[in-house]
Fold each of these.
Amino acid sequence: MLNQHVAPVLIILSILLLTTRCTIGEEVQSEIEKSKTTVQIRNNTKDTIYQIFVYYDQENSSWTSIGHWKIAPYSNFNKEIFADQDKPYKGRFYLKAMNSALNRGDLKYFCIDPTNTFEILNSDRIKCIDKAKFIRYYIKPGINKMIINP
């Protein structure tokens, strides 16, 4: 049988230990998230959209367009972007959302394939059949949230 003074101390120590573990776990998770560059797209429309990205691929010294990913209505899509193998990306990033009614983009042209999954190196310089306008953003390590509204 525990002494009536020892039991409350053990309860308090248990609570502190659990709280400390949660806090340390949250800090570790936060550091892991900061070591990655993730683009999170929120489709805030009633329609399915297709998402295309352009980033600077340092390994190939190339603006590279990649896509397209299907994002259901009112849902999120996450994509990790790398600068060089496992190094998180930081810098200019271009985004385009499209479907039959939505064609967002207003700044710079890059090559795309509007119907298939693709990765196009030097998409800002090569000649191609389909080019599209993109919106420029700046992203950094961590979660970069972007919302597509109607």
Amino acid sequence: MDYSEEKHFVRSFIRKERRDRLLYELTTPDKRYDGVSRFCHQAEDFLDRSKIRLSGDDLERNPDFRRFVILHNEPCYILSSDYALNEKNVVLQDAVCQAAASPEAVLILGSTFAVVFTEAMKGSRGKYLLCEYRPAN
């Protein structure tokens, strides 16, 4: 299996000291589900803060995020603890709609960005837009 999307995600958006373990989990079939779930439960500890462009529990309603989605509506790869979404390839707009409808952890991997939806817990759900560059809204 080709794990290029997972490798790119880890190298681009994860803090250096957390990369090896997460990459191992995402590229090992028996560990993959737990790796996605664990990452999304501890996203704040894993993410390179300099790559977070937008965040919040209502990210998909944010006008800046909506503008980003329209401008970057490219095919994306989804990793999720929701088996119905996991390993699907869909355009960003559809991926965000599907992720918002699922209570499970969802990682949407684009060419130069990622969108993270953490698992819904106690009425709140962390959501992050990560970019390799500063987008021009």
Amino acid sequence: MAYESVEVDTGLTVDQIATVFRRVIRSGNPDATFGPIEIGAGQPDVYAAYAAGKNLITRWCIQLFVREDDGSRRVQVIILGSSMLGKAWQGTRNTYSAALGRSRAEKVVETIRSIEGELG
């Protein structure tokens, strides 16, 4: 599984970031599923969640990680995608589209930046 990430620093609270994440994803895909990501013991304090969905033939999945960083939050959105070899080997049923995930991740980060600009 290949992945890439989009990151942004923000003064928004973790709750505000989680709300933006859910609203942006739901606006583009009302049937998207959400869930928590368990962080292992001994790891830093991190809020982690995922969103996943599909269109007629393609699935997508992104992960959200929020870390506290001296009064601000570091937001990282991971875009999961399958390589061309993976798609050839497993078909579209068991793979993720990086392009669909990227568009959703970029929209989440753009919205966070927009809200940050409005507040600042």
